[in-house]
Design brief:
By secondary structure, this protein is mainly alpha-helical. It has one domain: Four Helix Bundle (Hemerythrin (Met), subunit A) (Up-down Bundle), CATH 1.20.120. A hairpin with a 2-residue loop joins strand 2 and strand 3. Helix 1 runs antiparallel to helix 3.
Length: 168
C-alpha cells in the first residue's frame, strides 16, 4: 500500500472520530467559552472542521502557506447543520487530495511562513501527520472538555467514554 493511502486510512479513522465529536456540539452554546482567553465553542468546532482541507488538501496543492499573502476567512455559518456540512466538505477535499497524490509529491517540502519568518518547513507527509492529524486530535481533546463543561455527553474516541460505558 502506498504511503498516501496509508495516510488516507488514518485520516478516515480520525475523521470518523472527529465527526462523532462535532455532532455533539450544541448550536445554542456556539458563543460560549470556558475562559476569556479561550475560543468560543463555535470557533473551536469550526477550527477542528477546517483543518482537513487546510492541512491536507492545502498542503498537497501548494508548496507553502504565507500568512502575509493569504487572507484567512473564518467559518461564517450559524447553524449546527452548516458546521457539519463544512466539516464534510473539508473531509472530502482532504480525502480526494490524499487519494490522488503520489510518493514524490508527498515527499516534497512544504513551508509555513509569515513573510520572511519561516514558522516551519517539513516534508508534506510530516505536515499531514502533525498539523492535520495530531493538530485535530489536540483540538478535539479541547472540544471534549468544552462539551463536558456544558454537560453534553462526550463520545468515545478510541473506546467508550465515561458517558457511554461498555455494552454487551
Amino acid at each position: 500500500m502506498e504511503l498516501n493511502h496509508k495516510l488516507l486510512r488514518q485520516f478516515e479513522q480520525e475523521a470518523a472520530n472527529t465527526k462523532k465529536m462535532l455532532e455533539r456540539v450544541p448550536q445554542e452554546h456556539f458563543d460560549w467559552r470556558p475562559h476569556a482567553k479561550s475560543m468560543t465553542l463555535k470557533e473551536l468546532a469550526a477550527h477542528v472542521a477546517e483543518l482537513p482541507a487546510m492541512f491536507i488538501a492545502g498542503v498537497l496543492q501548494a508548496e507553502e502557506l504565507d500568512f502575509t499573502k493569504q487572507k484567512y476567512t473564518p467559518f461564517t455559518g450559524t447553524t449546527h447543520q452548516e458546521l457539519m456540512q463544512f466539516f464534510e466538505d473539508n473531509c472530502k477535499k482532504a480525502s480526494k487530495a490524499l487519494d490522488h497524490t503520489n510518493i514524490v509529491e508527498i515527499g516534497k517540502t512544504w513551508t509555513m511562513r509569515n513573510g520572511e519568518h519561516v514558522i516551519m518547513s517539513l516534508p508534506k507527509q510530516a505536515v499531514i501527520r502533525t498539523m492535520a492529524m495530531n493538530h485535530v486530535i489536540h483540538h478535539r481533546g479541547q472540544l471534549s472538555v468544552y462539551l463536558r463543561l456544558l454537560d453534553v455527553p462526550v463520545p468515545g474516541m478510541y473506546g467508550p467514554s465515561a458517558d457511554e460505558g461498555f455494552s454487551g
